[in-house]
Amino acid sequence: DSTINKIAAGEVVEGPYSIVKELIENSIDAEATSITVEIKEGGKKYIRVTDNGSGIEEKEVEKAFLRHATSKISKIKDLYKVLSLGFRGEALASITSVAQVEMITKTRDQQYGISIEVNGGKVISKKPIGCPNGTTIIVKNLFFNTPARLKFMKSTQGETAKITEIITRLALSKPNVAFKYINNNNIMFTTLGDGNLSSTIYSILQDDWVKNMIEVNKKANNLTMEGFIGQPTLYRGNRSYEIIYVNGRYVKSKLVSQAIELAYKENLPINKYPVCVLNIRIDPSLIDVNVHPMKTEVKIKDEADIFKCISTSLKEALIEEIT
Ligand code: ADP
Ligand code: MG
């Protein structure tokens, strides 16, 4: 079963950033209102995620790590079936199979917490500990036991950039959660968790120009758009700050990006991209979200219609701002 975990890890744990994503999503699932992420050396050596969420009960602690390392997955074809279900219960098991993991967790109802260490999938210690409510997970030395994969990680700078991107988009999608992001002992950003999108954008992106973003609040036929778009004078050399959520889920959509860019067409230099944080709500029956948890693609039916809606509404918002 340790082999199966490693194979599954190949799917779930693409690199440090995917660990950060899974851990933050677990904290959000646990209804945390405060999440701290600390990384060292691009997360390759050290990732810590601390939350004030529900915590895990003493008797559930080991299960959380080992859930699918059972006879459930006995054949290769079953394995693929489980993977295609979207890794429910796969993340922690996968992470612990390819790294050294420590977890400290306590529920509100317990007097004390549990500290557990799991190394390459094996529990090496478990003991009671005094700690606050919530969960801290520390992931050290990713891929220490899979040398081939160790080599495929990017430079510290490259991995850090991917982690920053993932934390940014998760923090922007949850203005109600106070995030703190620390990289090599430097605080990169903290958000207030006050539920306010513009203050969250400002906390993360910081630059002065964020203050001048244009608020969008549009309803058109079968979609609504809320969020902030940048002035045409604020642009980037790539699409990394076109941050788009469809029905609350972060997506990369060429269609949506092109629709946004069309609204800016006359106002942006060639090969430059606008900045935005947009929440788009579309009737779920009009979209087809890829179920793969690591994928961010979204398929939109009736594309031409949606494209026009987005582009026209944003153009209106831009014109209203200028006039
Ligand atoms: P999944 O999230 O798909 O259930 P994971 O492997 O990510 O699977 O997590 C396994 C289980 O561990 C979760 O279902 C949850 O019960 C528990 N868990 C993990 N992280 C946390 C956390 N930060 N707070 C509370 N419970 C957690
Ligand atoms: Mg999970």
Brief characterization of the structure:
By secondary structure, this protein is α+β, with helices and mostly antiparallel strands. The chain contains ten helices and 17 strands. The chain has two domains: 2-190, Heat Shock Protein 90, CATH 3.30.565; 209-322, Ribosomal Protein S5, domain 2.
Give a description of the structure.
By secondary structure, the chain is of the alpha+beta class. It has two domains: 2-190, Histidine kinase-like ATPase, C-terminal domain (Heat Shock Protein 90), CATH 3.30.565; 209-322, Ribosomal Protein S5, domain 2 (2-Layer Sandwich). Helix content is 34%, strand content 28%. It has helices at residues 2-12, 16-29, 61-66, 76-84, 91-97, 147-151, 156-173, 197-205, 254-264, 303-322; strands at 34-40, 46-51, 100-106, 113-119, 122-129, 134-140, 178-183, 186-190, 214-220, 223-229, 235-236, 242-246, 249-251, 273-274, 276-282, 287-289, 298-300. Strands 5-4-3-6-2-1-7-8 form an eight-stranded mixed sheet. The longest helix is centred in the last third of the chain and has 20 residues, at 303-322. The radius of gyration is 21 Å and the shape is elongated.
Structure keywords:
binds adenosine-5'-diphosphate; elongated; Heat Shock Protein 90; alpha+beta; 323 residues; ATP binding; eight-stranded mixed beta sheet; five-stranded mixed beta sheet; Ribosomal Protein S5, domain 2; binds magnesium ion
